[in-house]
Amino acid sequence: MDVPARPGAAGQADIAGTARQAAGQRQRLWAFLELFALVGFAIAQPTLDVLGKDPDFFIFRQADRVEILVLVLAVTVLPALGMWLVEQVAGLAGERARRAVHLLMVAGLLALLALEVGKNLTSLRGTALVAVAALAGVAGGLLHATWSGLRLWLRYLAPAPIVFALVFLLASPVSKLVLPQSGGTVDANAPGVKIRAEHPVVMLLLDEFPLTSLLDSKGRIDPRLYPNFAKLAGGSTWYRNATAVSGLTDFAVPAMLDG
User: Fold this and answer.
1) Rg (CA), the chain
2) Is the pTM of this model over 0.70?
């Protein structure tokens, strides 16, 4: 009866080397997923949350759809990818060096996350908040190094940045700048549509110019100090108690211009 030959020492070494290489590749993949998840919570979510509530940020800068998508990519993927590449470069000096750099980055991101949480949920500010966040980062780094459960949870949370990006692009007010909108422009030559401007309209905005500077002791435009303003007021309708929708120029002016 033929007995299959056992693999020699060289064959066993090749198998062991292949297994170690595959394990190393998995570890590098897990490392990226951990960084990706932490970047999502520490950087992407706070940034996209603030920008998602303020579409005027993009309107004032005339940002188009592509630029908004590039911004989303920049805050969700690029930080994690950049840190992961630095980690791989450190890995050229050995696996221990790569793990040390990875642990340092994880601790830093956890400290940044603790800073965001502490700022929103506590009254701590300044040096005290930074100190608490730094301690939380160190504790989180030690926990990451000693407890596999934290590493496992970070890998499970890896899809979170994608969810944050989709909420920003599809559900926030900024979605109107990204998604195609129904409807179109009005054709001025279409039957039944008449657009005529019989009188020119001039809108003068004096930003941060207090009304009280123009008034006399009786609460009227002072004709002696400001004769031209007084002349304008004499032939105009003055809505004395009218106010803008906001005290900030960036919000008040668009509302005035579009009605």
Assistant:
1) 31
2) no
